[in-house]
Design a protein that fits this description.
Elements lengths: L1 H37 L8 E3 L9 E2 L10 E3 L2 E3 L15 E3 L2 E4 L3 E6 L8 E4 L6 E5 L17 E2 L1 E4 L1 E4 L4 E9 L6 E7 L6
Parallel strand pairs: 1-9
Antiparallel strand pairs: 2-10, 3-4, 4-6, 5-12, 6-11, 7-9, 7-13, 8-12, 13-14
Amino acid sequence: MIARLGIAIASAVVVTAVAVALATTGRAETTDSSKQATTARERPRGVLLDCSTQSGLGGAPGGTFTSRWNLVVGPIAMRGAGGTPVYYSNDFGGNKFPLYMRGGHRVTVEVSRRNPQGTRFMYGRRPARVITFISCRSVEMPPRNPYEPHTACCFSFWGGGVFAPSPRCVHLLAWVDDERSPRRAVIRLGVPDCG
């Protein structure tokens, strides 16, 4: 009987020790992951494209921000980048995606480091991994083109696209206005699935 009591006490001690260890480990993981979740990644710096560098349109074609064929992230829409898959041009080394942006916003877009070297944006005069787009304010917008009455006011527009060494999923990070954490997006450039 004394032996059974000793075994019962020893078992209780072991169970308690294991429970304490598991509880402590769980709290440590929760604490670490919550720190990671709340820690904002610093907005990267790169090429700056503002109202003075836009391609000159004051409107966006109707449906630009609602079409499933466009990649929409907050106030920006990359025309043609939302299809599945998006065509990959060997001649271009990627594809062209005109970028429309609602007036009065700032968005920094980065080609994620998950992508291979050589994956870049081509907006403005040179390829870049990080671009900050600053749209015109409504008072800075050019007058609406009378030959394009179907366009919606007021948007900034930049011609350009994405370069990649081969067809692939192009992972993007986007910091919208004053958001501290980036939004994630993917362009299926010549591949049917990024799963």
